[in-house]
Design goal:
alpha/beta; Rossmann fold; single chain; 225 residues
Amino acid sequence: MGKIVIFDWGGVIMHKDPVNDNDKQAIIRTIKNFNSALTDDEAWNIYINTLVDENGIFISRRNDEESKIKWIDRLNSAGNLNTTIEEFTKKFIEEHLKVGYYKDLVDYIHSLKDKCKIAIFSDLIYCCAPVLDKQVDLSQFDHVWLSFITHVRKNEEAAFQIVEQDLQTSSNNILFIDDTSINIENAKKRGWNTYQAFGYELDKIQNSVEQFLSKDLDSKNEFRR
């Protein structure tokens, strides 16, 4: 049980592709619930442009009440909304629970528990956590690293250092599965085994995990496709 497989959330577990309902559409619906006059593009831009505070800190790195309230204030001001942190969080969760996720992948992840450790490593806003928990049951995971709790995102070296400090294991014992190139590249720099994939590529993910567990690795710590 020395090995661990670490999964990202958005794009790997939760739908992110444009064909299906996805998190972007859920965000647009959330914003427009508080100002129906906005276009989809306007709603999305309001969200994107308010994610960072006056100090350049992303809301996905914060979990304190002051930062949450400031974020809602920025949203209200930018979009002419009129909502509270409680109302916005409730609607955000409600809309994200409508978004599909790759249940067959989640079932597969849970099936790995008797073969290796499993973990979630994701950048997300505090109000995404109940949705993630509903989809995957976080209590089933050996480790969970979420940016709003660790206060660092995967574009920062410190995020990967936290994982390594918690695991206290060789990088050869880690397999990281993510859909984003930059996250994969950052993990490679740490010597982690990596596989870039979306959640609908279950067969490829299964193959990469099987290779990892059987130590069938290539010289670059990236699995053969």
